[in-house]
Structure formats: structure tokens, C-alpha cells
Amino acid sequence: MISHLQIATVRYALVPHAAFQGVAWRVDRRGFALGALTAIALLGVGSLVAGAIALESGQPYGVYYPQWLLGGLCPALGFFLKRSVSKRYEQFELRGMQAFDA
Questions:
Q1: Cα(41)–Cα(74) distance, rounded to whole angstroms?
Q2: N or C end of the chain, less CB within 10 A?
Q3: Is residue 3 within 8 Å of residue 66, measured between CB atoms?
Q4: Model confidence, pTM
């Protein structure tokens, strides 16, 4: 059975996806968007390490599972979204060059 804590953790782990899809269309925010995605991925790796330490020290399931879940989702979202956001910026640059040539 899924608890409310697990549902809330998944819901808040998906917030970076929605936030950066909204920011990604702004060409002048490229450095911020890509840097923040890298920071989210690194924060997720830190959460994964903290979850492993919590498990090793004998903490209950409700302590280490959200950290592992966040540690699994944030790096995946950060690195995969970074690729798609970079492609989106390349498309915008190409579209701008084509408009300039026409």
C-alpha cells in the first residue's frame, strides 16, 4: 500500500521537471537552467548518500526511503532534462539563425 508520504515525495520530486520546462523556452536563461539542473542532480546524489547512511545506521523505513526516492529521481530528472533542454536551446538558436538568413 502506498502511503501519503510516498505520494508527496513523488509529487515534489517532479516539481523540477515542470519548473525547467517553463524556464527552458527563455533563451537568455540558458546558463541558469542548465546550472540548476546540474545542481538538482548533485543534490539528488547527496540525498542518495544520506539515505544509504540512514539505512546503515538502522533508521526506520520512513526515514531512508524518501531520501532514496529523491536520490533516485533527482539525478535521473536532472541529467535527462539537461539533455532535452540543451536540444531545445540548440533548436532556438538554429531557428534564430534561419530567421536572420531569410
A1: 5
A2: N
A3: no
A4: 0.65
CA atoms within 13 A on the CB side of 25: 4
State the residue for C-alpha cell 546540474.
38
Q: Average pLDDT in the 34-41 region?
A: 89
Residue 43 grid cell: 543534490
Question: 40 near 17, Cβ under 8 Å?
Answer: no
Long-range contacts of 53-56 (CB under 8 A, 24+ apart): none
CA–CA distance, 81 with 3 (Å, rounded to integer): 28
Q: Report d(CA 43, CA 35) in Å as an integer.
A: 12
CA dihedral of 68, 49, 53, 7, whole degrees rounded to 10: -20
Look at the block and give the residue holding cell 531545445: 88
Rounded to the nearest angstrom, the gap between the alpha carbon of residue 100 and the centroid of all alpha carbons in its chain is: 34
Residue 87 neighbours by CB distance under 10 Å? 11
